Amino acid sequence: MSNPIDAGAPTGYTYLPVPTQHVPALMEYLVSLGAPKSVTADEHERHAPAHEDFVGQDAVWADELLRRLASDTLRSAHNAAAAMTVIARKTMEEGERVWVGNDDLAAETGIDPVQMPKVWSGFGRYISNPRNGYPAEWPLATRTASRLPDGKQGDARVLYSFRSVERAKRWLQITTEE
Predict the structure, then answer these.
(1) Structural domain spans, the chain
(2) Which of 100, 161, 163, 164 has the highest local Cβ count within 10 Å?
(3) How many angstroms separate the first and last alpha carbons of the chain?
(4) How far is C-alpha 62 from the chain's CA centre?
(5) pLDDT tens digit at each of 178 positions of the chain
(6) DSSP assignments along 92-159, one per residue
(7) What is the pTM (predicted TM-score) of this model?
(8) Residue 4 per-residue DSSP state
């Protein structure tokens, strides 16, 4: 079977219901096609681009757009903004960029842990819709880690971080403005 990625197949995502027992085999197959592999937090840090590589991203999310997001009433946007506030607070507490997973975000925001991935999924769909007026690029950096930052082994997890301490600080300033 030829590799559809190499054959010029359309890019993007298709949501496909898969029986749970087949998920591991499907994941292996996707990896064999060249899908990104999970990395440990340490591996990511060694290979992560420097902050300067993300400067353009902050410019896309200007302060006015962040203000709009902070006051957006759509549930997924509101919940994503609450999670971003948690990430920003943790960043400021540590004084450096931190990576926060869904379990911690759920505990801090009061959102059901099962719902956290759905929050991000809904948020991603919302901001990528041009009618909503947001940049399609995420205001956060994400990474997948098979080992959590505290050294525990676990399933592949998605972790979230502001792209810089300065951006986290700015988010807190914007969300606390009167």
Answers:
(1) 38-176
(2) 100
(3) 59
(4) 18
(5) 444 444 555 556 666 777 777 776 766 666 666 534 444 444 444 434 333 333 445 557 888 888 999 999 999 899 999 999 999 999 999 999 898 888 899 999 999 988 998 999 899 888 888 888 888 778 888 887 665 555 555 445 788 899 889 999 999 999 887 4
(6) HHHTS---EEHHHHHHHHT--TTTHHHHHHHHHHHHHSGGG---SS-SSEEEEEEE-TTS-EEEEEEE
(7) 0.64
(8) T
